[in-house]
Every structure is written in structure tokens, then in C-alpha cells.
Amino acid sequence: MIMRVFQVVIRPGKEEQFARFFHETAIPLMLGTKGIVQVLPGAPRTETPREFSFVMIWDSLDSLKEFAGDDYNSPHIDPAEAELVESRSIKHYDLVAT
User: Fold this and answer.
1) What order do you get walking across the sheet with 2-10 strand by strand?
2) Are residues 3 and 72 in contact, defined by beta-carbon separation less than 8 angstroms?
3) What is the model's pLDDT at position 76?
4) Is domain 2-94 in CATH 3.40.50.2020, yes or no?
5) What is the CB neighbour count within 10 angstroms for residue 89?
6) Hey, is 78 helix, strand or coil?
7) How do the domains of the chain map onto residue ranges?
8) Is the pLDDT at 20 greater than 90, yes or no?
9) Is 54 helix (H, G, I), strand (E, B) or coil?
10) Which residue of 36, 37, 41, 45 is 20 to 30 Å from 92, comparing CA positions?
């Protein structure tokens, strides 16, 4: 399984608008995506008020590629959120069974 860690930093003043998008659009979209085993959405904390994240567990690299394309190492964002996002990052790991 693949663990995908996606993080965004929101433009100053756009936090509430992004929070709505995050809760109403992004989380439901990811929860309903084929190949995702688990979604762990992360909201800002006091010390990081403009940062949001997703940790997604994918059943396979093939499923991830089906969703994100062959360029799955690029942190793509939805066009609806592009004007809200200052920066983004993506990292992948092999999930360690516990």
C-alpha cells in the first residue's frame, strides 16, 4: 500500500474560504475515490493557521496512478482551489504494516 501525504499552505485571508472547500468538496471527493483505503484529513492548528493536509492510504500504485496520472509525484490541485493555495507539496511512502 502507498501512503500519500499532501499538504497545502493557504494564501493569507483565504483560510475560511479554503476550509469550506476542504470540508464540503475535497474530503467527500477523496472518501469516494476508488483505490483509497483510508483518508486522514488535517486541519490547521494555532501554530500553523494556514496549513491543511491529507494523508491518504492507497491500495496500490496502479490505483494512485489511475487517479492522479503518471505524474502522480506532482501535487495537483483542483482548479476551484488554485487561487486559494500559496504552496503545495506531496510525498509518497510505502505503508509499514503494524
Assistant:
1) 36-42, 51-58, 2-10, 85-94
2) no
3) 78
4) no
5) 11
6) coil
7) 2-94
8) yes
9) strand
10) 45
Cell of 36: 483509497
Cell numbers for 4, please give them.
500519500
What distance in Å separates the CA atoms of residue 33 and residue 3, rounded to the nearest whole number? 15
Mean pLDDT confidence for 36-53: 95
How many Å is the Cα radius of gyration of the chain?
Answer: 13
Cell numbers representing residue 54 in the block = 491529507
pLDDT tens digits for range 49-97: 999 999 999 999 999 999 988 998 988 777 878 889 999 999 999 999 8
Question: How far is 57 from 40, CA to CA, in rounded Å?
Answer: 9
The owner of cell 501554530 is: 47
| Secondary structure, 3-state, 45-69 | ECCECCEEEEEEEECCHHHHHHHHC
**Going by C-beta distance under 8 Å and a sequence separation of 6 or more, which residues neighbour residue 65?**
72
* 3-class secondary-structure state, position 94: strand
